[in-house]
Amino acid sequence: MTIERRDLLLGTAALAAGSSLGAPAALAQRGGRTLLLAAPGAPEGFDGDALRPGTQETVVQVYEGLTRYGRTERDGRPYLNPDVIEGHLAESWTSSADGKSWVFKLRQGVKSFYGNELTAADVEWSWAKSFAQRRTGNFIANVANVTAVKATSRYEVEFTLSAPSLILLSALTLYVPGIYDSTEVKKHATAEDPWGLKWMETHTAGFGAYHLDSVRSGEQAVFVVNPNYFREQPHFNRVIFRAVPSAAARITLLRGGQVQWIHRPLLQQVAELRADRRVKTQDSFGRTIASLRMNLRFPPFDSKLVRQAFNYAVDKQALIQGVFFGLAEQARSIIPPIVAGYDPSAYKYDYNPDQAKALLAQANFDFNQEVEILYSQIFNWEEALSIQVASQLQSIGVKARAVRISDSDMRARGAPARQDMPFFAFEDGGIVLDPVYTTYLLAHSQGVSNRARFADPRMDALIDEARQSLDVPRRNDLMRQAQALWMEEAPWIATVYPSVWEAMAPNISGWCPHPDDHERWYDLKVG
Predict the structure, then answer these.
(1) How many whole angstroms separate alpha carbon 150 and alpha carbon 121?
(2) Are 317 and 485 in contact (CB under 8 A)?
(3) Contact 242, 220 (CB under 8 A)
(4) Which SS3 state, helix, strand or coil, does residue 82 take?
(5) Is 246 buried (19+), middle (13-18) or exposed (0-12) by CB count in 10 A?
(6) In whole angstroms, what is the distance from residue 476 CA to residue 490 CA?
(7) pTM for the full predicted model
(8) Measured between alpha carbons, how far is 279 from 263 in angstroms, rounded to an integer?
(9) What angle do CA 108, 157, 187 make, to 5 degrees?
(10) Angle between helices 472-489 and 457-467 (to 10 degrees)
């Protein structure tokens, strides 16, 4: 089943010297069936509801959705078409007149690596797991208004919603809540661990194209093709996901032909690699926002005048060139241009240090206080951006300095249960290409990526109405109001939308960008 949405909102050295993995040239002689990837680290878990380093990059290869986006082609490259939603693990669906009940008919004959057939009981169990964990999958359920998922027959499953939702079909394209082979997982569950979460730290059980064969902590994970996969078998029947912590070493291995893909090259490396014939680089529009976030519960950020002043004090164009090597677009909304409904009309924070000084004077800002910008190394731009912004704030008299904290500390302090950083650098964006999802994620008081805990009843009301509305013009208007309110309240210094870049061997083709910014191995091939 396909639904048209045009009427909706638019929009190592050790590896190099001692590995027995082999080079791409040798692999090509054997049919090019093994894909070698170098990443900063090996995966540390395989539960999409409990993201750890390397989890998201790999679970998207194993767990697939009931639906999928359509595809289109531009300039000889494949892209997702968010205006078209097709059936995937589900072949068709119907909804009630009030939009609160959806029945999905599963594709028959879909089997996991273990040979167990996908049934509605697997879907019910998988969503129950996410509900119980109350993490990423539960958030997806909340934003899509899903309150219950129940198997009504062997191949039919009913989703009950608290209110109609234009987000549901897009949300079902995601890897989370993952659709698990519950027959297999239940074999490893215990009374203390009823969902088999301990087993999932080192195992997978999905209906997708790949399956985890082995994992060595801190070193590598090896994936093999699911021989029972319901679509055509992928080009690569084996994928080795190897930890190479050094970004420079990853580049060396790629240039030397010892790996075929590296995860997330640094932007300065991309600038160099674009002219290197030994490597192919490709980019796509970013759906995340690189930002400096101000927590309204801590002074001086409880003053809107101060927040606005800091926005005026930052020269975004200088950051684009000095930090992002020209490979980014200035952010003018909480919704990025790739998402339908993007409206930059309320943006007003072009660089104006005089206006910044005037607002600080109006706010009676205490220039004797020190302002710390916390940053980590989760994103490779954080240090340079934080240092440059601190310097720009210093130029208007603010005693600002950049302070590095550990990656684990940044994640812990930005988690929903804590969120106690007054001013910090981070990058976030929606993995559903929908403006209501994006604003709920980043700006709603219950948004899991609202890491500075911005809480405004007016914003919540706008998002909640849009989340439950099937009136497209009204939904559009609510999102315009939400973006304007966000700009006025200025809880972030939204700097840029970073482009997404991938670097690969020159003979690799097929990369199709996805909203979660991770390639699908199923798409890739040699030639």
Answers:
(1) 8
(2) no
(3) yes
(4) strand
(5) middle
(6) 21
(7) 0.86
(8) 13
(9) 75
(10) 160
Asked if 254 contacts 505 with a C-beta cutoff of 8 angstroms, the reply is yes
CB contact at 8 A, 326 and 508: no
CA distance 424 to 404: 10
- Identify the DSSP state of 517: S
DSSP 263-320: S---HHHHHHHTT-TT-EEEEE----EEEEEE-TTSTTTT-HHHHHHHHHH--HHHHH
Q: What does the alpha-carbon distance between residue 399 and residue 370 come to, in Å, rounded to a whole number? A: 5
Per-residue pLDDT tens, the chain, 527 aa: give them.
444 333 333 223 334 333 434 444 433 334 449 999 999 999 999 999 987 888 889 999 999 999 999 999 998 999 999 889 999 999 999 999 999 999 999 999 999 999 999 999 999 999 999 999 999 999 999 999 999 999 999 999 999 999 999 999 999 999 999 999 999 999 999 999 999 999 999 999 999 999 999 999 999 999 999 999 999 999 999 999 999 999 999 999 999 999 999 988 888 889 889 889 999 999 988 889 999 999 999 999 999 999 999 999 999 999 999 999 998 999 999 999 988 899 999 999 999 999 999 999 999 999 999 999 999 998 989 999 999 999 999 999 999 999 999 998 998 999 888 999 999 999 999 999 899 999 999 999 999 999 999 999 999 999 999 999 999 999 999 999 999 999 999 999 999 999 889 999 999 999 999 999 999 999 999 98
Strands 238-243 and 34-39: what pairing?
A: parallel
Outline where 324-456 has alpha helix (H): 353-362, 382-394, 407-414, 435-443
CA–CA distances in Å: residue 84 to residues 76, 194, 462, 514? 20, 37, 26, 14
Q: For residue 351, what are the contacts with CB-CB under 8 A and spacing of at least 6?
A: 312, 313, 314, 315, 316, 317, 318
Angle at 407 between CA 403 and CA 413, to 5 degrees: 80
Helices then strands (H, E): number in the chain? 18, 22
DSSP state string for 196-253: -HHHHTT---BSSSEEEEEEETTTEEEEEE-TT-SSPPPS-SEEEEEE---HHHHHHH
Q: How many CA atoms lie within 13 A of 295 on its CB side?
A: 21
Of the chain, the end-to-end C-alpha distance in Å amounts to 31
Tokens of 520: 């699908």
Please tell me the distance from the alpha carbon of residue 262 to that of residue 239, in angstroms, as a whole number: 13
Gap between the Cα atoms of 346 and 481, Å rounded? 9
156-187 in b/e form (b: 16+ CB < 10 A) is: bbbbebebbbbbbbbbbbbbbbbbbbbbbbee
